[in-house]
Amino acid sequence: xxxxxxxxxxxxxxxxxxxxxxxxxxxxxxxxxxxxxxxxxxxxxxxxxxxxxxxxxxxxxxxxxxxxxxxxxxxxxxxxxxxxxxxxxxxxxxxxxxxxxxxxxxxxxxxxxxxxxxxxxxxxxxxxxxxxxxxxxxxxxxxxxxxxxxxxxxxxxxxxxxxxxxxxxxxxxxxxxxxxxxxxxxxxxxxxxxxxxxxxxxxxxxxxxxxxxxxxxxxxxxxxxxxxxxxxxxxxxxxxxxxxxxxxxxxxxxxxxxxxxxxxxxxxxxxxxxxxxxxxxxxxxxxxxxxxxxxxxxxxxxxxxxxxxxxxxxxxxxxxxxxxxxxxxxxxxxxxxxxxxxxxxxxxxxxxxxxxxxxxxxxxxxxxxxxxxxxxxxxxxxxxxxxxxxxxxxxxxxxxxxxxxxxxxxxxxx
Amino acid sequence: xxxxxxxxxxxxxxxxxxxxxxxxxxxxxxxxxxxxxxxxxxxxxxxxxxxxxxxxxxxxxxxxxxxxxxxxxxxxxxxxxxxxxxxxxxxxxxxxxxxxxxxxxxxxxxxxxxxxxxxxxxxxxxxxxxxxxxxxxxxxxxxxxxxxxxxxxxxxxxxxxxxxxxxxxxxxxxxxxxxxxxxxxxxxxxxxxxxxxxxxxxxxxxxxxxxxxxxxxxxxxxxxxxxxxxxxxxxxxxxxxxxxxxxxxxxxxxxxxxxxxxxxxxxxxxxxxxxxxxxxxxxxxxxxxxxxxxxxxxxxxxxxxxxxxxxxxxxxxxxxxxxxxxxxxxxxxxxxxxxxxxxxxxxxxxxxxxxxxxxxxxxxxxxxxxxxxxxxxxxxxxxxxxxxxxxxxxxxxxxxxxxxxxxxxxxxxx
Amino acid sequence: xxxxxxxxxxxxxxxxxxxxxxxxxxxxxxxxxxxxxxxxxxxxxxxxxxxxxxxxxxxxxxxxxxxxxxxxxxxxxxxxxxxxxxxxxxxxxxxxxxxxxxxxxxxxxxxxxxxxxxxxxxxxxxxxxxxxxxxxxxxxxxxxxxxxxxxxxxxxxxxxxxxxxxxxxxxxxxxxxxxxxxxxxxxxxxxxxxxxxxxxxxxxxxxxxxxxxxxxxxxxxxxxxxxxxxxxxxxxxxxxxxxxxxxxxxxxxxxxxxxxxxxxxxxxxxxxxxxxxxxxxxxxxxxxxxxxxxxxxxxxxxxxxxxxxxxxxxxxxxxxxxxxxxxxxxxxxxxxxxxxxxxxxxxxxxxxxxxxxxxxxxxxxxxxxxxxxxxxxxxxxxxxxxxxxxxxxxxxxxxxxxxxxxxxxxxxxx
Amino acid sequence: xxxxxxxxxxxxxxxxxxxxxxxxxxxxxxxxxxxxxxxxxxxxxxxxxxxxxxxxxxxxxxxxxxxxxxxxxxxxxxxxxxxxxxxxxxxxxxxxxxxxxxxxxxxxxxxxxxxxxxxxxxxxxxxxxxxxxxxxxxxxxxxxxxxxxxxxxxxxxxxxxxxxxxxxxxxxxxxxxxxxxxxxxxxxxxxxxxxxxxxxxxxxxxxxxxxxxxxxxxxxxxxxxxxxxxxxxxxxxxxxxxxxxxxxxxxxxxxxxxxxxxxxxxxxxxxxxxxxxxxxxxxxxxxxxxxxxxxxxxxxxxxxxxxxxxxxxxxxxxxxxxxxxxxxxxxxxxxxxxxxxxxxxxxxxxxxxxxxxxxxxxxxxxxxxxxxxxxxxxxxxxxxxxxxxxxxxxxxxxxxxxxxxxxxxxxxxx
Lengths: 414, 414, 414, 414
Hints:
The structure is a homotetramer of 414-residue chains. The first copy, chain A, has 414 residues and is an alpha/beta fold. Chain A folds into 2 domains: 2-53 and 315-413, Alpha-Beta Complex (Aspartate Aminotransferase, domain 1); 58-312, 3-Layer(aba) Sandwich (Aspartate Aminotransferase, domain 2), CATH 3.40.640. Helices cover 39% and strands 16% of the residues of chain A. Chain A is built from 15 helices and 18 strands. In chain A, the strands form 4 sheets. Chain A has a 7-stranded mixed sheet, sandwiched between helices. Chain A is globular, with a radius of gyration of 21 Å. β4 of chain C pairs parallel with β1 (21-26) of chain D.
């Protein structure tokens, strides 16, 4: 670790939480250089939906490299990118009757959100964007303005403007009433409020504490957005790509977003990729090159990402995800009941959170898990929620081991 | 191309400029699916310093994949990352006596700049940052506020604040006088100006038109920054990593920046990576996790980037770069002379620009080059500068072919 | 009128509403140059609480002029100013046990609010200020940012920042629930909200539509301000100085504001004066001269304002105001009942509003009143509320005439 | 003084500088309650151009009061206001061939500037306004953003945005070169600068240190404004109304401003009044009531202000002002020469400054003057300039006495 301590920036975080040097990884396992194996319930912060070093993707990537495929192409057309697009269209869009346009940008979720904000502001000619308390949308100034977390916001060093903040459904002051109050204020010409360009919402706030919005509330947000002439933008970065048991976390809810932001899992192998889906008539208002980025065209990401999409050719994986989600929730509820400390369990599919109400306790549990060979991370305000987001492809044994390890760690930490 | 036209966002740009579908690439060549080969004088906007699909990197990446190396690790410690850091330290930092800390963030140049801004604002407690006309620093709101280009700025849709704009050395109103005028204004308590947190400068404005700053002017900027208590930040994203004939574009100038932003070429293979070098006493002010990002730990980028650093084990490549740069400049000067239209030639090492004074003409030349089998892109205000940034590893034949193609295209376009 | 039409700015307003040239005025009467007399239910927008050309004030002012009193003194000490201060202290502050410091600034209400904002921000080190929908606080950029009215806001031409908007008690989404929701959001570190420097509130929104806050709600605002470390600022500019039947509109409510903004009526004769009352320990944080203004020391305003304070030596006028207020409210309720169109009546003391729900109708009524020899003005969203604010000293006959004129005008306009 | 110390805000300033209580005043004399007489070289910060309690104005005001003229009228038409407008038109506008429209607003200079900014932004649809270092334009957020002084700016407590700052002609970095540099930057699409809505300039920066702009430079500012589509706004608040030896400080220069801001001296007697002159085709873009203010219609100010205009019926006073100005400048030059400390003398007409280069010294001289029976105030950065702005009507004896007092005070303070 000395190399990291001596040369890497003091800002490093996870290498402090998990103080070992990892040497290899496979599906739901990371192995450190001492040979110790850890079951991974963190999955690269929700990136590795299909496991570390997914063998199908690995094979495809090696073939691509050996064939001298175009690894880096900005937004030039390549055969690899075409294959990815075609596969995304046939697997995701067409079955849902969606006609969205695919926009590629710098390969981070933050870039995706920044692009969505630009489009919303351009299309509406408005400045202000509605974001929700506890939301997490990125670290660059545009997306950070939407992010709720105080620590991140203060690091900006400048005022974060042009955002109107509403409480998330499950947050203090939240629910349908606050949406209606805002609607009434917007309708009131002396309210001093500006009409918004967009509502940007996560269906499940992953970083924010595994806060799950109801379909009813999401519909109310969408309806409000439509009624006031704003775009309805779903930030699907952490909970899309199959995490909740369907490709989109909002599948089956009958929602009709104007923009969907994707990143993290879309690149399959941990290979960076970000992509927005834009309603065509909105997308048509982009001028070529208005929002660019060097790493828009990542051949390896397209290859791995295309392979990832094959998991959605049938419902096998998603069925498993829903079953695993139930198993995880059951296990957490058992932990909560045994603890008898008012813990709550929240989630959908394979994102499940155990809210222990206390960041210090959650941190201690995570540390104890690590000591026992498991990677898990806290999230939410003050880090009070233990978030379980293992690879969707985690073997039953590893899932069981992780759940038992967590139960033991909680028990012994109490 | 129909897949792109039907499904990709209207914002797509390069696939319109180079209207073909590329299937493979190798060193300074891209080949489209019809088998046509193009000599590449664009190198992925300055990313592919070591050529497309560099064989040494490719081999290392395949080995890494086969060994199940940790492909995605956030900012956990991995053996691969350690190898990269150690190699960077021994190859770049130690020979220069530099003790900077390495900070990784979301793998785009824009993220690097955003991180630098946060650090500068945090360390100084100031808001305003000095940027220069024609500068290009990224597309997200924080870095975009530094970027000069009007088209990009308007796409923000919100006021871009907290930046004080000075003319670049070679821009209208530029030179030492404007720095001294600004110094005098800052010293004047009734100037109404805020003391700046940082000066962010490119030694050569690549996107801005291959505008080359002198060492004298850069020293004046650094001195002014020091004198007014601001950080001196060099954005080395496009012209670092060997592009100018030495690792840093400012090597040999005796400059001592507080932060150096790196991206593009640092990942070697077009694999995304961004990294800031922070002066240790400034870096010490970061709190862990204050600026995060999902794709901070990219195993493939570390592997390829480490391999790229071996090109700096000796001076062979850099010697060649300087020679090639001369050859390119000579060729461009000949073109300019023959054209007799007031064209000017600017650059250093293997970034050379031919300023034809007219964006429409430059665009026509680039189109003619493409028709003749060459990729080249315009830059600068209105796109009036043809920018030559081939891979540093370009074979002599390809370099010669490209220069001849360009000369012919200019001749015939006139 | 040709002089005005030819030479005065197109921005002129009241000379269009009341298209005649006034030549003289006395108590509740304005007389135009044709000799036509109008009963004045507008009182210079709430300035002339003691009538036009109040004879006691007039005599004092003439004496002051003849004695060469110091008419203009910036914030130098003068005998006249001392007399005013001493009278204000003995009449208003001491009987209430208040120890506030008197701050003079540019003689407009807007300047008073701007000064209060500076003090709040300075004392707390915070930027954001809470204002309420439908609030009116002035026209300069700082106070305008608090003002709710859309027409005024758009005229700013720049974003109006640093204000957090809550619904007023009686506005859509208002009441105690919205205060509690905001409290909860502030307590939530991931809410993305900044802690406020101050809550600025009118007890009765005069321009906003004669919206009357309850003591309970005002206490809740004060308590919330205290709890979150913000100042509690009452903008008393239009409804203070006796308008509601006591000197302060909040008398008897047990409130304890940190800053009270006064203007309009404080100068007595329509002579400009503005004054803030600042809690001493907050006021102590002002550095001398931090907020200045040329017309801070107005001798004529001090003389007339001092005379005005004698109306509060006993309760005679205030008793009358309360009785007149009842009479006005009764008359309006009769109008509302007769009209049977859902009109509502709101107010306290001698500020009473008839909300006719429709700006065009209210405008027509006001025009009809003018035609019949009465000045009255609409307020509120779209101008839908007829606001009655005659001089507190209005003779019974004039009050009766005005109320009858209004009733007749409503009847005939329907 | 105890009343002031006990009850007035700590922000009070001049009552500390001149620690006595004034009881009466006449022309260039203020007399304190102990009967001590002071010669006044400060004139209420440039308000009392026609002396304290000017007898012609006093008589007119008393007559107005006795006749029950309309003292307060918002922007209703009154005979008094009409007389003022007609007199201003015939005396000031028509002889100059000016067709400007007169706009009245809240009666402070700051309100005048705020109104000018709104008009400029509305007319151009632009946000940013050019202001100059050392400029003073007011204390409310819009005008304060233009003001250069650091102490005042910091008191805002919020970022002051939407202003581009250029050095004043005589300030560090100033002169024609900086205007040309700015022009070049604006012409450069990649400069990152916004086109400005207006240039707001004082011909002589009074608060800023008696900095005198040349006609050549002012023309360059006007030309630049015209060329870039911005308004040319002259803030004439302190040096207009005859101060420099002609009605406007820019008379005879051939300038053609779009907006002229007037306040201070326009009301004659120290009675508050502010007025903008707007070019008619710009003024036509105001909608009625877009910028309002309670104290727009001040009968006493119109009466006194009308009387003040009679001083411009012939050239007698202005001739005297020019002669007095020479006498003042001569006296100051003699002081400077005798002191032999590098003092400089600046000014035009009866605004003259002695720059002693050191705020503490200037403050000591002012205190010594006060001790000797004279009121004079420092201005400029750190208060290093002694500013002489006696009433234009000062008797020769008083002028002589004041100049001698100052000379003696400087001599003895050295």
